[in-house]
């Protein structure tokens, strides 16, 4: 049993991340980004520089948008993702372990972590739900 848990804790990000996740851009209108999240049932999106350069600029969540809507008027057509996104979000690398991901998520109270390469380009996304599914699948087998 302990060997199984040790193996699971050493599982790599690359084994559980969503490869090629959806993303948005800093200059995208909040209304467009929010609509995408609602239609795809997504709680948050990484923000990359542009379609060709996937350099991670930040992350935007439905919570960010709700809090901003509560605090200010978001009806302005000029409100963009960069106005509300979290800059310099916590990130992980593809070779980080599950135990490291969980440490960051619990300590920083985040539910999603962008996965970046050595050039800080988005290559994946790790979600709490994906971790739970991995654990569930693992427990069903054992």
General description of the model:
The structure is a single chain. The protein has 142 residues and is of the alpha+beta class. The protein has one domain (2-141): CBS-domain (Roll), CATH 3.10.580.10. It is built from 7 helices and 6 strands. It has helices spanning 2-9, 13-16, 30-40, 62-71, 81-84, 98-108, 128-141; strands at residues 18-19, 44-48, 56-61, 86-87, 112-116, 122-127. It has a 3-stranded antiparallel β-sheet with strand order 1-6-5. The longest helix has 14 residues, at 128-141. The radius of gyration is 16 Å and the shape is elongated. The mean pLDDT is 90.
State the main characteristics.
142 residues, alpha+beta, CBS-domain, 3-stranded antiparallel beta sheet, 6 strands
Helices and strands, with pairings:
Elements: H1 2-9, H2 13-16, E1 18-19, H3 30-40, E2 44-48, E3 56-61, H4 62-71, H5 81-84, E4 86-87, H6 98-108, E5 112-116, E6 122-127, H7 128-141
Antiparallel strand pairs: 1-6, 2-3, 3-4, 5-6
Concise account of the structure shown:
This protein has 142 residues and is of the alpha+beta class. Helix content is 44%, strand content 18%.
């Amino acid at each position: 049993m302990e060997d199984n848990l040790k193996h699971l804790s050493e599982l790599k990000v690359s084994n559980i991340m969503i490869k090629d996740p959806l993303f948005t851009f800093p200059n995208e209108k909040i209304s467009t980004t929010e609509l995408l999240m609602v239609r795809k049932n997504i709680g948050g999106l990484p923000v990359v520089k542009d379609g060709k350069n996937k350099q991670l600029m930040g992350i935007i969540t439905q919570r960010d948008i709700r809090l901003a809507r509560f605090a200010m008027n978001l009806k302005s057509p000029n409100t963009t993702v960069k106005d509300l996104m979290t800059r310099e979000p916590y990130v992980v690398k593809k070779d980080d372990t599950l135990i490291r991901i969980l440490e960051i998520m619990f300590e920083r109270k985040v539910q999603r972590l962008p996965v970046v390469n050595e050039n800080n380009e988005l290559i994946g996304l790790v979600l709490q739900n994906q971790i739970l599914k991995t654990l569930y699948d693992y427990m069903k087998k054992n």
